[in-house]
Amino acid sequence: MSAEAAAATPSKPLSAPQKALRKLGLVRDIDLALHLPLRYEDETRITTLRDARDGQVVQLEGTVTHQEISYRPRRQLLVTLDDGTDTCTLRFFTFYPSHQKALAVGARVRVRGEIRGGFLGRSLMHPAFQAAGGDLPDALTPVYPTSAQLPQPYLRKAVASGLRRADLGETLPTGVLQSLQTTLRGLRAPLMSLREALHYLHHPGPDVSLDALEDHSHPAWQRLKAEELLAQQLSQLAAKRERDALRAPVLPLRSGGLHEQLLGALPFGLTAAQRRVGEEIARDLSRPVPMHRLLQGDVGSGKTVVAALAAAIAMDEGWQCALMAPTEILAEQHFAKLVGWLEPLLAPLGKRVAWLTGSQKKKQRTEMLALIASGEAALVVGTHAVIQEQVQFRNLALAIIDEQHRFGVAQRLALRSKMGDGASDVAGEPHLLMMTATPIPRTLAMSYYADLDVSTIDELPPGRTPIVTKVVADSRRHEVIERIRAQVAEGRQVYWVCPLIEESEALDLSNATATHAELSEALGGVMVGLLHSRMPVAEKKAVMALFSEGVMGVLVSTTVIEVGVDVPNASLMVIEHAERFGLSQLHQLRGRVGRGAAASACVLLYTPPEGGRLGETARERLKAMAETTDGFEIARRDLEIRGPGEFLGARQSGAPLLRFADLATDTHLLEWARQAAAEMLTHYPEAAERHVARWLGTKAEYLKA
Ligand code: ADP
Ligand code: MG
């Protein structure tokens, strides 16, 4: 019975392997057909022990000459096999009477496993075995990705029957096939049909070599990668078009309005990049469809003012805006900055900036909620509190999310839904502007974020000095402390960040507390503050205020200062246990300095494990930090080190990752898929739907947030 048929018969409970199949997402015949081998095993030959190399996976045939159960070092079954050229030991730590019977002395058996050398002679650990003789397969045997509950032979059979039954009819229209053929010609791969490609990879012929199968530039792989990328592009483009059918308030840029006034009131002129992205946003806002734009710009590139200018356009028309930030400190900073910029302009209009956080006193909160509901609050700044149910806007037109990667899909959707939540005066969708300081590498932007419009600030405000980064062993900590003393003596300020130790918040804290005590003692006369996530909010604010005002020379903190904090006089950032931080986090932290005119530095203190060296990825991360301050380069290397799965984090919780295509190498196919998706969706919508259903099936929920 097919997996599909099994699923449709509720009366019969699923067997363990059937359940395991579902867990792997292998429900339909086509899912099984698209479940491709991880690698292949060569069972076409019998090797002799004389020719077998240690570490090689071999298939042997011989006679059992000895069998015993040994109890040292633990209970195990030992079987000696003689193949006429040499002998070896088969070792089983788990075994059943059936093992003993099949591997009885005198039995002729065929075994397969990895051969290992050793002091007591060569051995195979837990080899697969069967009676000797019997046909050898004439082609390589596929090995599929699987789970513990799903034995390889069962899965192999399920895949084979799925492949037999699945509808593998062509989904690509002729024109699209032709453009694929042209693209593949550039990659020196002839076009294969999906059916041919799948048969080739699942059941390689006798003359197909391991190299050809494992080489992902083979035409069969190219076809699969192209199909997969096309499905991804189609689903995202469809989401985008769906959104384009929605309505949003038209917010034109009015001359003489708030936007112009704010520009005039700023203490600086915009950079060319800020002007450019500002125009891109203004163009979106002037259209009757909801904006869905990501504003990316390195730390310190000046995204906040761009957001404020966008808000000014909306507020000018009498609409409301919301700005949501991931932490209270960051929200507070935004609030202070935006009040400073906007309240003088809003006051004559009888409007205000409201403030919402979780820690707020009930009375103040009630007051704020009233301002928001009446529309007197033209702008609402806050944390997650902004998306809570009690918050009802009168006419929300623009929602801005800072550090968007820190929010999940659900939270973005909640903010968007604030417009149509009944209490609102208007139906439709608000415009959405998301901001991030973790720039998305181009290939990711083109694939996973294809449904987003992206604006990029690729220039820092003038007068910044580059940050010099040093990687220093913790054994030289005293030198770093001397450097801090010198900086503070010059009137500069210093951050010292301690790591987040995930397993234990208590340890995390003790680390920061100990460092705080150490620095307070070593730097007599300098005010050293401490900031961590478990402090009461009021205390956090007080500490942050002392540091912002320049009274406090050194701020020791856990990663609570990670995002967005802006104190231009700070010129030295010390990161303790830098080896424990992720690359983008290190980059964000480093971005806290170098915001003023003073020369700035970042010291990455690392502690190698007892008597050892740092791990490979930790070393790569620190090296990347020392070599570049360019956020895009950092993001690219981060992607290289971590792979897209982790890089994407929360955004992709619902969306399937690419299984076959590799964004680092398959850019040509990605370009093709982008164009092909647009063409198919416009001219062949049915084929497009069929293609997406085939590849994404139940996972084809469009990315709406
Ligand atoms: P980020 O993009 O990291 O959010 P911010 O918006 O916090 O950066 O800006 C960093 C600092 O640069 C702030 O103090 C901000 O006022 C200042 N700034 C922004 N744009 C300019 C500009 N064009 N010229 C000078 N300073 C600017
Ligand atoms: Mg910011």
Describe the protein:
Helix 24 (667-683) crosses helix 25 (685-696). Mean pLDDT is 86; it is low at 1-7, 650-655 and 700-705. This protein is an alpha/beta fold. The strands form 4 sheets. A 7-stranded parallel beta sheet has the order 11-12-10-13-14-9-15, sandwiched between helices. The longest helix has 26 residues, at 219-244. It folds into 4 domains: 45-136, Nucleic acid-binding proteins (OB fold (Dihydrolipoamide Acetyltransferase, E2P), Beta Barrel); 168-245, no CATH class; 258-457, Rossmann fold; 467-628, Rossmann fold (3-Layer(aba) Sandwich), CATH 3.40.50. Residues 303-304, 402, 564 line the site of magnesium ion (MG). Keywords: ATP-binding, DNA damage, DNA recombination, DNA repair, DNA-binding, Helicase, Hydrolase, Isomerase, Nucleotide-binding.
**Low confidence ranges:** 1-7, 650-655, 700-705
Largest sheet: 7 strands, parallel
Radius of gyration: 31 Å
Give the overall shape: globular
Distance between the termini: 39 Å
CATH superfamily of the largest domain: P-loop containing nucleotide triphosphate hydrolases
Tally of separate domains: 4
User: How helical, in percent, are the residues?
Assistant: 40-55%
Write down the overall mean pLDDT.
86
Report the total helices. 25
CATH fold group of the largest domain: Rossmann fold
Sheet-strand content, in percent, reads 15-25%
Estimated structural class: alpha/beta
